[in-house]
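[Automated response] Your request has been received and processed.

Submitted sequence:
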Amino acid sequence: MKKREKLELIRKHYPNALTTIDYINKIIDYVEEKLDLEPSQIILADSICSDDVNSIQYPARALEFLGPFKMGGLDGFPFTGLSGMAAFASHVPDDGAVFIYYGPHIGISKEGAIGEINRHGQNSNSLCCGAAVGALNKLIHDVIQPNNITELDYQMNIIEQILYKEKEKILSAEIPLFEATEVIYEAIDKRIQELIASTRYNCKYVIVVGAILINSDSDIGSFSSTKRFEVIDLKTGIRENVISILNQV
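Generated structure:
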């Protein structure tokens, strides 16, 4: 399948999606040309799902940054919390920047099925994101108990509670899993902003990129659909919205 055909498949649901390779290339071009920084001056933290497919489909150029520091657990929620953000902030070069990339993920197979992909070496498709699908199924069958968070399955319970709070919105949507992913994104975005506001960074900039990470079959790869791209100048306190750079499709 050619690149344009892959993009056509993904953009049926995410019109501004880019291949993750192109996505990272655009971000690196921006930090080099506009911020006058090299990737080696920037430490990356990602808050994305711990699903192995995200490591497999991680673009090689992202490794030009320092890190990554892993903040995310199931479906990308930043479970390392304030302590994780503080630890990450203490690792940044003084004359550099921190780059925070976050968001949930969702699978779209080459047949166009949402919530599943064909993984390397498997004959049939498997769930993606399995945690989101599992929580959604519990929501549909009305078995999520409000405020039920256990030590044994803490992360999954958090995802369940996020969906439970938006039950009507999700279940009335044309594609409930698509809507559930949007709801999870909003929860992640809110938490990331809270963590940033409560953390001190000893560097020049904080680069904040929120997105839906879209996985597809092993021979198609991954994509990102941007929802937030901002740069905080820590000297002036000015937060600049530069999302247009990643929305040029």
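Summary generated for your ticket: The first strand starts at residue 18 and ends at 19. The mean pLDDT is 95.
If you did not submit this request, please reply to this message.
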